[in-house]
Amino acid sequence: MEEINEMADIIIGGGCFWCVEGPFNLLKGVLKAESGYSGGHVVNPSYEQVSAGITGHAEVVKVTFDPRVISAKDLLRIFFTVHDPTQLNRQGNDSGTQYRSVIMIRSAAEKKLALEVIAEIRAEKLYAGKIVTTLENFAGFYRAEDYHQNYFARAEKGQSVANPGYCQYIVAPKVAKFRQKWASRLKK
User: Fold this and answer.
1) Any idea which residues carry the catalytic annotation?
2) What secondary structure does DSSP assign to 163-174, as a single string?
3) Whose CB has fewer CB within 10 Å in the chain, the N or C terminal residue?
């Protein structure tokens, strides 16, 4: 399949955005990964609204990348290893539609690519359960509040964050597993 080189970003959700943003910011070719909200019916929602589950948004990450270094296809493959795409509307203890596994789709080419990667993941039998990741038509990305950006990186450096325990016990093990699995793809 021809690669989609003109695409400079993808928008994905796999539970808490801190658990997705942290690993993606470590990848070669990723220029930035921003936490935000997408897929709901409220314009410019707040974290409090989204986490209450009243806006329909998912916590997502907008991954801006250089397609000469890493492809959208590889980013989607990696996405399916940083979260459990078989959990419906949850990741671990985080539950609700705001934590759904989702890929926001902006074109027929993006949809085709996402379906191709999902088919590959199913064929590889990486998960015993059914993949429940939804493909949703993109209807806007709302950048999360500044204190959510680079959250895990700041916590890892010992900088003040509101929930260091979550980072230590939930995010850190995921990032450690990610670093091991994708060591050859990490920034120096």
Assistant:
1) 16
2) -HHHIIIIIHHH
3) C
